[in-house]
Amino acid sequence: MVWNPALGLLQESIDEKGYFYCPYSFKKFAKEQGMEASGKTPEYVSINFWLEQDVEFKNRGWYVTRLSGGRFGVFSEEVFPKPYTALSINSVENLKVEKFSSRPHIEEAFKLMMEKSSAENATLEMLRFGGIWDSFIERFSGSNRYKVGPRGGFWHRFNLHMRKKNQDFITFKYSGQTELDYSLWTDDRIFVIEAKSQKQNGFDIGWHKLAFPAQYYSEIAQKYEVDIVPVYLLRHFSNVDNKVFLFVFPPYEPYNEGLLLNDQKAMTPDSIIKVDLTDIISISQQKLDTFSR
Questions:
Q1: Nearest 5°: phi and psi at 52?
Q2: The pLDDT value given to residue 290
Q3: Are 112 and 105 in contact (CB under 8 A)?
Q4: 214: exposed, middle or buried (Cβ count in 10 Å: 0-12, 13-18, 19+)
Q5: For the chain, percent of residues with pLDDT exceeding 90
């Protein structure tokens, strides 16, 4: 296990104060501790899903999270509630859609992409060309008028807070890169969208994937008095399933001039929308099954 040489050091700090903080890069830490960590830093400290946390960490009730510039923290779940969602699809709202009709060449292009790839970009754009985003925006804004906004990577700095179960919190200075998959802008809302494609599961997304880009736009939102709405797009693809779930969370609220990463209330969605992609285009499940294997 990658972290094994450092477990004693981590345990000592966690026993004392509930967390371990590394004030320098993971690569330097790994070298000092004799860890075999040849991959890129995010593989070890920026974990997308709770299930992907290190097995030994989960056995001990710990989790790791990125804290800026390759630095990281390891936290006790008993002291600091985990910054990961626990979503379900027991109660969903079906979004009515229509198949492509006037542009068969676009439909054919998306069919090829969706049958052979799990790429999130293809899903995001198919929802746009299929009119899904129009229906989605109308459902939440009352009008289907919107613009696709900026996406990609950007750098920013903010205060990152972690709250203890006793309501005390500690603060770190975050400065670094953040990735945004997609954004939709209306007159009164900014929808920041994180997209993932999974054969199954995917309900335990790390809140940093949504909260970091939301925090990035918080100054613009305050200046123009608009809401930032985090949205998690989860596509399930297999030989029997090809659906998209849109988890719509409460409007984002900054905390003490920064971000409260493990805010349990913020991680509970207000609405869950389901879209069956086969209602838009006739995706070959046989080809999709071949890809998913």
A1: -90, 0
A2: 36
A3: no
A4: buried
A5: 71
What's the confidence (pLDDT) of residue 288? 40
Average pLDDT over residues 245-253: 97
> What DSSP line would sit under 9-35, residue for residue?
HHHHHHHHHSEEEESS-HHHHHHHHT-
* Identity of the amino acid at 52: E
Question: Residue 268 is which amino acid?
Answer: T
Maximum Cα–Cα distance across the chain? 65
Q: Within 13 Å and on the Cβ side, how many CA atoms surround 33?
A: 20
What pLDDT is stored for residue 108 in this prediction? Answer: 74
Contacting residues for 171 by C-beta, under 8 A, at least 6 apart: 159, 160, 161, 256, 258
Nearest alpha carbon to residue 87 among 210, 182, 239: 210
**How far apart are the C-alpha atoms of 106 and 131, rounded to whole Å?**
13
- Joined together, the tokens standing for residue 194 give 């994180």
Nearest to 83, CA basis, from 177, 188, 5, 160: 160
C-alpha to C-alpha distances, 186 to 3, 130, 151, 221, 266, nearest whole angstrom:
45, 19, 16, 12, 21
Output helix, strand, coil percentages for the chain, rounded to the nearest 5: 30, 30, 35
For the segment 65-72, the average pLDDT, to the nearest whole number, is 89
Lookup result for tokens 């969370």:
249
Name the band, by pLDDT with cuts 50, 70 and 90, for residue 106. confident
The ranges assigned to domains in the chain are 4-76, 93-292
| Residue in the block written with tokens 């068969």 | 104
Neighbours of 82 (CB within 10 A): 22
How many Å apart are CA 199 and CA 288, to the nearest integer? 11
Backbone angles phi, psi at 194, to 5 degrees: -105, 130
The b-or-e profile of 222-253 (16+ CB within 10 A means b, else e) is eeeebbbbbbbbbbbbbbebbbbbbbbbbebe
